[in-house]
Amino acid sequence: MDWSLFVSAFLSATLLPGGSEVLLVLRLSEQGPAWQPVLVATLGNLLGSLVTYAMGRAGNAALRRRWLRIGDRELLRAETWFRRWGAPSLLLAWLPIIGDPLCLVAGLLRFHPVLFVLLVGTGKLARYAILAALAV
Fold it and tell me: CA dist 12 to 86, 87, 106, 122, Å?
């Protein structure tokens, strides 16, 4: 397993700004099978989103503000988006700026965890697969 890619993808979905896309493209350029780095990045990024979801379920506002840097305004915007678009909005959890708040709101609203994993995982896998297809 490519732990550096996994950790990069995990952290980019949680605490630190940044992305794992550059490292994924680098790994893809190393001529190995493309599905392996795509799967590693997807798994790391999904687990990072699950941490955010769990924080939402725990309802800890201090962690939301301090570690995720999601203010009340961003949270309200994400909650409005989530209530309007519902479950399909979780397919967009990979997007910068709105992805973390969507995962947090899903946790706050006690969204079904299995559906959360399926929708968020599908969106993140699609993003990395498209990136891999474009990079190869």
Answer: 24, 22, 18, 17
Is the Cβ–Cβ distance between 117 and 46 less than 8 Å? yes
Q: What is the DSSP string of 72-129?
A: HHHHHHHHHHHHHH-GGGGGGTTSTTTHHHHHHHHHHTT--HHHHHHHHHHHHHHHHH
Supply the range of the domain harboring residue 118: 3-135
What is the total count of domains within the chain? 1
How many CB atoms sit inside 10 A of residue 77's CB?
17
Express each pLDDT in 69-106 by its tens digit.
777 888 788 778 788 888 999 999 999 888 888 898 89
User: At 10, which amino acid appears?
Assistant: F
> Can you tell me the distance from the alpha carbon of 7 to that of 17, in angstroms, rounded to the nearest whole number?
13
**Roughly what angle, to the nearest 10 degrees, separates helices 35-58 and 99-108?**
50
Return all residues near 31 (Cβ < 8 A) that are at least 6 apart: none
Separation of alpha carbons 8 and 16, rounded Å: 9
* CB within 8 Å of 4: residues ≥ 6 apart: 23
